[in-house]
Amino acid sequence: MAGHSQVPSSGLSWNGHERKVTACLRARTFGIAPPPGVDSVTGVKEKAISLLQELTEAHSVPGHEDEVRAIFVDELEECGTLSADRSGCVFCELEGEGPRVIIAGHMDEVGFLVQNITPDGFIQFLAVGGWWEHSLLSQRVEIRTRSGEKITGVVASKPPHFLPEAQRRQVMTIDQMFIDVGATSRLEVEQEFGISLGDPIAPLSPFTPMQREDWYMAKAFDNRVGMAGTIQAGKQLAGTLHSNKIILAGTVQEEVGLRGAKTAANFAKPDVAIILEGPPADDTPGFSRAESQGRLGGGVQIRLFDPSAIMNPRLADLAIRTAKEEGIPHQVTVRRSGGTDAGSFHLAGEGIPSVVLGVPARYIHSHNSIIDLNDYLHMVSLAVALARRLDDSTVKGLTRFL
């Protein structure tokens, strides 16, 4: 759009983009092999695993989403027209005419910023996003410097030998914690390690297959499942005819107040928003199994309500009906707490019908969360199927109140 910054591409011309889209359409129509970069049906699962590994191991805390943004651009630059808003949200518009349907995930993960460096070289930090302090002590982190180098450190903890009995039962607050990067002075931290105040800090935790088939553990499934899903859904839709204009988006700063979604909605001006998320699972000890609405292996989660947004009832019903008719395992949820980018999208402009599709993840907002890959694949399937049904008459019907 005029007046908005364009994301640097690999030099692919518009004619090259047209050839790519045409090749995608031919692949669908005549059953020939799709061009490079387009997921085949049999390759979706393998691509999901490699993409989730790349995304979860990326360093992208609120306000510093560069690494995830680069993956988005690399994966989608041949599928549509790339652009970015002035807050850093990134978009890929696919070929098509009709109502504007945005499929969006947020690029950021909960993390920290360098708040101070002590004279003896320890890092004091503050949280960006919601953390439970119980989960932080003795965990590894990476500090990304202005030059892009990543410095490994650990959130320090006292051995129990030095703790009075009463203190062992207390939860430390973040302002009492510090990170040890192996330095001996502030001068060494700044001049030799290159660490500055305000540098972003992310959890350090590798993407790990678990013993149970298709279960994976990693940091940042909230919301790298949403970003991976946006990319894979977009690639599938880029190779098909659809009666709308699909806009794929990665938003910024969701974890600190759904901020990027505000500018994204103003920039993209969608008629409908499908938000892809990594919500908390509720299937572990301490939760009632009978009341669980986010069980691993239960399918894609369709959210109807949380304190940030009441989903458009007609769109939510369409999502549920689509899942049933397409045979996609799903679970419906009404949440007492939490929020998603739908909280900003549904209030933008004159109102944007929104719905949230999620992959339940255990232990989010920590160094190690767990998902069932099949729930992720069902989310991608439902996002694609729902987007295909959002033609002009259907979209108009979502907001016909008189």
UniProtKB/TrEMBL annotation:
Alphabetic keyword roster: Aminopeptidase, Hydrolase, Metal-binding, Protease
SUPFAM superfamilies reported in the protein's UniProt record: Aminopeptidase/glucanase lid domain, Zn-dependent exopeptidases
Listed Gene3D superfamilies: Peptidase M42, domain 2 (2.40.30.40), Zn peptidases (3.40.630.10)
Domain of life from the UniProt record: Bacteria
CDD domains referenced in this protein's UniProt entry, alphabetically: M42_Frv
InterPro entries: Peptidase_M42, Peptidase_M42_aminopept, Peptidase_M42_dom2
Pfam families from the UniProt entry: Peptidase_M42
Family recorded in the similarity comment: Belongs to the peptidase M42 family.
Protein's recorded name: M42 family metallopeptidase
Protein species of origin: Luteolibacter rhizosphaerae
